[in-house]
Write a structure and sequence with these properties.
DNA-binding; DNA binding; HxlR family transcriptional regulator; transcription regulation; two-stranded antiparallel sheet; about 15% strand; Arc Repressor Mutant, subunit A; about 50% helix; WH_DNA-bd_sf; 8 helices
Length: about 170
């Protein structure tokens, strides 16, 4: 049974939602898009997905209206991926996964991977998205993000490993 056909067998919104975003790779692709990546190679580097796996996930996200492809180069033709309104609307789910992961999936003493600062008042928001200083509920667009040194190094190491593997293959 195809994914779309399976969605039609239930009115359960959770089941239908997981048909669109219910696997690790799709969630990681969306994470990268929220972090500002838009090109296939950078998304592949940071998710560590195989090219085939990533292409499949991006095509599914495009078919489901979560992302749109936009050409950024004509010869050879290359695309970047941008979140649609529907894709941007999924962000609270990623935010909740982040909060849950920071709370329950870390060792004692591990630093927070990404710190968010409220642009309006300049204070760190923490994990709940309610500014502790001004009391405002904040959306992603209200925040500046700063990667921890550990997370930034992890991401840079992936880029270096990818570039080294690509150089060896050439």
């Amino acid at each position: 049974m195809k994914r779309k056909e399976m969605s039609l067998t239930t009115v359960c919104p959770v089941a239908r939602s997981t048909d669109v975003v219910g696997d690790k790779w799709t969630i990681l692709v969306l994470r990268e898009l929220y972090m500002g990546a838009s090109r296939f190679e950078e998304i592949q580097i940071q998710t560590e997905a195989t090219p085939q796996m990533l292409a499949t996930r991006l095509k599914s996200l495009e078919a489901d209206g979560m992302v749109e492809r936009h050409p950024y180069q004509k010869k050879p033709l290359r695309y970047e991926y941008r979140l649609t309104e529907k894709g941007r609307a999924f962000y609270p789910v990623i935010r909740t996964l982040r909060t849950w992961g920071e709370t329950w999936c870390k060792s004692r003493g591990e630093e927070v991977a990404v710190r968010f600062t409220h642009r309006k008042c300049g204070h760190e928001v923490g994990l709940d998205y309610l500014c502790p200083v001004c009391g405002e509920y904040v959306e992603r667009g209200d925040l500046d993000a700063a990667l921890s040194k550990t997370f930034a190094n992890e991401r840079e190491k992936r880029r270096e490993t990818y570039k080294a593997a690509k150089a060896r293959a050439e």
